[in-house]
Amino acid sequence: MLLANTSAIVTGAASGLGAATAQALARRGVRVFGLDLKVDEAPEVDGVSYVATDVTDPVQVRSAVERAAEAGPLRTVVNCAGVAPSMRIVGKKGAHDLDLYATVVKVNLIGSFNVLALAAERIATTEPLEDGLRGVAVNTASIAAYDGQVGQAAYASSKGGIVGLTLPAARDLAQYGIRVNTIAPGIVETPMLAAISEEFRAGLAAGVPFPQRLARPDEYAQLALAIIDHDYLNGEVIRMDGALRMPPR
Fold first, then answer.
1. Residue 155 catalytic?
2. Which residue has the higher pLDDT, 199 or 185?
């Protein structure tokens, strides 16, 4: 898909996977609109405009979509926003906090769906390209959707929902020429790992068959761009994990 002089929405764009993807798209000549709650912490990047947005709020997301479309045509949406707290279903303090579970699902799954749906509504109004293609959506799941660990019930549920959303969304939006794919990353060197000790980080890296290290955000961005560029790739979930299969604990 031709990207130059089009616009894109990237959620979670202030850091991590979203920041790397926003920068990679901007280098391709895309006018990127980065949606995040922490826009004050976002890096200054030519071609990237940040919009303070709660991805679970339809009014805020629709406003951001319209801003992007005005700079358009809007062709691309990449959902990277997410939260990943850890809690056991039954722990020392009792049962898993229901509000926390609901928050994780709301941000990771419902937020992704909200952005996908509202962006797709706008993308569907653009002029079609070759084969009737109008745009591409890339969502972010996790290997936690498959390799659920202790303490990850909420996170794994939300990411499993994104995996389950992929094919029906691709088929549903096919009539508008919109492709939908998902990346399921393994352990990526993002701010989510900031509180983890170097010793524990080294242990995580040692569990990756090859290459024996943590993934980099720019590798996610590279894969996202490859998906966007590949016009026949649709309805797929691609693991990016160095052949890692997480143990239960």
1. yes
2. 185
E strands present in the chain: 7-11, 31-36, 48-52, 74-78, 90-91, 94-95, 135-140, 178-185, 237-240
- Considering the chain, what is the average pLDDT of its residues? 95
Residues 6+ apart with CB under 8 A from 116: 77, 79, 137, 139, 169, 180
**DSSP for residue 210:** S
Catalytic residue among 50, 101, 146, 155: 155
Name the pTM for this structure: 0.96
The backbone torsions φ and ψ at residue 64, rounded to the nearest 5 degrees and listed phi first, read: -65, -40
Which of 215, 217, 203, 202 has its CA nearest to residue 243?
215
Q: Tokens 């959620």 identify what position? A: 11
pLDDT in tens, 110-155: 999 999 999 999 999 999 999 999 999 999 999 999 998 899 999 9
pLDDT by residue (tens digit) across 59-98?
A: 999 999 999 999 989 999 999 999 999 999 999 999 999 9
Distance CA 173, CA 53 (A): 24
